[in-house]
Amino acid sequence: MTTTDTKDTLQKFIFDNAAVRGELVEISDTWREIQARHGYPKAVRSLLGEMVAAAALLSANLKFNGSIVMQIHGDGPVRLLVVECDADLRIRATAKLAPDAEVADDATLRQLLNANGQGRFVITLDPLDKVPGQQPYQGIVPLDGESMATVIENYMLRSEQMDTRLWLAADDKVSRGLLLQKLPRHTGKDDQVKQASEEEDLETWNRAVMLGSTLKQEELLSTGIETLLNRLFWEETIRVFDPQHPQFHCSCTREKVGNMLKMLGKPEVDAALADLGELGINCDFCGKHYAFDKVDCAQLFAAPIAADAMTPADDTKH
Fold it and tell me: The whole model's pTM is what?
């Protein structure tokens, strides 16, 4: 069964009587929206698409109101891959290539992003409702792995201490992925019960991973979620949850672009204005254009009026 023109869907499921969970995702409309304003080379498109699927799979388990930002900083022809996904599965993504980069269709992740061994993988957990002084959590690790799935698996094991397996695939039409995770089991004080439960979990986990490993990339790309779930785990007892639906969303605003200009500093902005007359910034994610003229930039750097300067003097005499 081949699925076409389906609504973007993420399906969670859990294995009964074992601390193992899974998710399947297929993203088509959102993925085409991400690509709409960019002509990425085939190999770059595939990597970014796999990263989009992975971000959705990980974001579906967020325990806070916020987003996951996944970044790969590369030292090859691809300098940056970025995917942002929030708890509602609203996604945006972009890639930046080196000037005059030449990318073969069959280029590997190492060739694209880790040619000199200096690539880095970064995950940022950014709560929307931060308490005063709270900073986003950020984990940074070397780019360890020959595929996008392996890079993320290694990160999850190293930073989150969670056994995670991923199968990812993307082409110009769809981004798809399967995630399996072995969860910590909360048990009572009976050591025999605990030992039996751990053995059962391990047996189920190993069997699930073995079944997942039979999945071929072309099968993942061309087969719908329901069919895959039945085909892979038809002998297992699993429970499925209400599906979620990823969608494209860009959070860029004029205020955020203005803050970026302020971070550059007034001398640099003034110098750019002198050369260009007006600053035009296009969002890397959605392509929206923001224009700042001299008046706009002057307002950005205008010193706020101090509160005490607005307080009238009292009549107390000294």
Answer: 0.85
